[in-house]
Every structure is written in structure tokens, then in C-alpha cells.
Amino acid sequence: MEEEAKPIRKQQRRMNLTILDVVKKEVTKLLAAWIIYPILDSQWVIPVQVVPKKSRMTVMKNQHDELVPMQIQNSWRVCIDCRRLNQATRKDHFPFPFIDQVLEKLVGKSHYCFLDGFSGYMQIHIAPEDYPTRVVSAVHTLRPSKPNKEGPNCIDHISYPARRPPQRQLSCHVTPRKSAMS
């Protein structure tokens, strides 16, 4: 962090019920995989953003019976806006290795595997001391489908830092004739 950086705590915007359901499902999925976990308080809080996923194109008729290309939107992506956090973070001069450095490490190796089986956007490890700066605020309301004797089960606000799941033992087998590097 930069020395003069002040913690950023932004309030979550209102969401309609459809978007709230999308956020609830994503938060539940990430909690179950231990990519995130609940906390009580943090100085750094980032609100959740929900955007439409890029979707396939199709051709449809418009009001003048002309065929026009249209995008069909049928799914959502839950994101966080880290621009202000990035401004407060000290920049690394060489954040990623050059491709020739990566290839040098592969010389003489018979197998190479790079796999993140959960989701494609969780590729960067976060140091444990940096967890408090990656806190996301989400309005997450759980309601039972039918009322029970104990009353409704509600979590009005949940905050959680993003973190990597525990390392898992994976066994990989590569078939060279079916593999390609482009």
C-alpha cells in the first residue's frame, strides 16, 4: 500500500430482486468453496457490481421485417470494482514473468499443467496479510421457501474478503498427441 493511502469503504447500491438472487447464488457458491469467508468488520469495503455476460449473437426480425443481428442476454457476471484499491496500491515494476522466462523453466520437463478447476478469474494468489484490503460488501438476504417455527433466516449484510482456497492434491495426465500450445 502507498503510505498516504486512506481505506476505502463504499456502501452497496440497491439491487433489484433478479440481481439480488444472482448475487446470493454466487456468494453461496464462493462461501461453499472457501474462496471467501464472512467477517464482522473491515476498513476496506468494495461493493458488488453485476453486469450482463457477453452472449451469443442471433438474427431476428425487427418491426420493419428486416433481419438484424441481436445479442441475447441470458446470464450475469458478479464483479467488484477495484479501481480505487488499485490506485492506493504500490505498483510492482515486473508483475508477470516474460514468456521466455516461463519457457526456460519448462525446458527438459516432460509434463506441464496449469489448471484452475473452479473459475477462470481466480488466478492470482493473495497474501494473507492483504486479505483485509479485498473485502466485498454484498446485500445477501436468505428467505426460506415456507415459514418455519423459528422465523425467517436472514443475513442482511455480509462482508467477506476474497482469498484462495486451500491447495488441493490433483493428479494430471497429459496425452502429448492431444495437447497443443498456441
UniProtKB/TrEMBL annotation:
InterPro entries: DNA/RNA_pol_sf, RNA-dir_DNA_polymerase. It comes from the Eukaryota. PANTHER family: REVERSE TRANSCRIPTASE DOMAIN-CONTAINING PROTEIN (PTHR24559:SF444), TRANSPOSON TY3-I GAG-POL POLYPROTEIN (PTHR24559). This is Retrovirus-related Pol polyprotein. It comes from Mucuna pruriens (Velvet bean). The lineage of its organism: Eukaryota, Viridiplantae, Streptophyta, Embryophyta, Tracheophyta. The gene is POL.
